[in-house]
Automatic annotation (TrEMBL):
It comes from the Eukaryota. It comes from Heracleum sosnowskyi. Coiled coil: none annotated. Pathway: Secondary metabolite biosynthesis; terpenoid biosynthesis. Keywords: Glycosyltransferase, Isoprene biosynthesis, Transferase. This is Glycosyltransferase. GO terms for molecular function: UDP-glycosyltransferase activity. Its EC number is 2.4.1.-. Residues 16-242 form the Glycosyltransferase N-terminal domain.
Amino acid sequence: MAANKSNVVQTNKIPVVLVMVPFPAQGHINQLLQLSTTISATSDIPVHFVTTDTLLHQAKSRFAGAPLTNINFHEFTVPSFLAAPSQNSGKLSGLFQPSAEAAMHLRHPVAELLALLSVTTHRLVLIYDFLSSVTVQDFISLPNVEGYSFQGVSAFMAFTFFWELYGKPNIINDATVEYLPPIDSSFPPEFVEHITRNLKLLNLITGFLYDGCRLLEGKYIDLINSKEMMGPDVKQWALGPFDLLEVTPKKEPSERHKSLKWLDEQSEKSVIYVCFGTSVSISDEQVEELAIGLEKSGKKFIWVLRVADKEALPREEGAKGAKLPDGYEERVKEQGIIIRDWAPQIEILAHSSTGGFLTHCGWNSCMESLTMGVPIAAWPMHCDQPRNSLLITKGLKTGEQIRKRAEEVSVDLWGSVAKGGITRAELESFLLHITRELI
């Protein structure tokens, strides 16, 4: 039985309690941590957060948001199968199976926690990653729980996935869909199986939540509500971008990452930032070609070069990651810096010296780059990334070295989270909905 490291205190019933259940992968956990702090800062609703102990420890250590003191954490231990996969030169085989297995393993401890919490409140509101539908499925047996499926991908990705599932109804006049890569070519077979498991539980939802903004993706959200697809009765809220700048704590100069100190010495918009997220490992051949290209470009760069996170894709003890050409780091020491562990991505993108982002197009990275007004050079690898890159390049046109467009999108996004902005209104609407008849 998994061990729960936090206690639920029995009290008189309170109006609403909110529970967050992310998919047990680092990027997914960070999204719902951001949403948790946003809701906690703008309402009196108690927020509970559930995931594995190892992943939560890492997420907390890297979190760039507001203090997490107001969040009630529930950490569960999962079996050692999380350490089963190994690096495989960037191949997808085995990459996602540990997270999928963990999501299924968490079902029983999460069910017990929800049952315990449900007796403390009049309404238990459950926000769960779509990929964790298998984890929370037992909430349907509780009389006072309603579930909202969080889409950790772009609304464009969600729409195109469901659009194909519904037989590609003739409801969109958008050339972008002509470039859609087949799902089977983007997702490994074991992950397609996990998606299928979760799709069977789609009837559990009360509504969808997105880490996205209606200013950018409103038409795709509206199309999901069309009668040819899910229909107008499905409630949807776009709550992004999560307010990254306001929740970033001020740090003493001595606490700043070395990359930020290096950026302080560079010219405005002169540095290309290169990072492929926490679940991507490029091959040795790709590392060599990219290294040569960066060096020959003569441009300043920050390159986050590492194998995927140990918790996501464990590696052999003592492995040092990708090997660069002999003498490379010495040759480029005046041109760029290479980081082999975690980097403060939000702060790097927000820095005035950062002028571009070479990214795998994971949705977290896309949203952070769009919010900071940094143009994207897209190098998608797998899963939702190829479709996210279509949205960036063909749809929003912020991935073709169009700096002005990237800056315009940034202005729109920050306006959306300000008082009177569309995202702020969406958040207020969602909070009013889940506290309806209880105010």
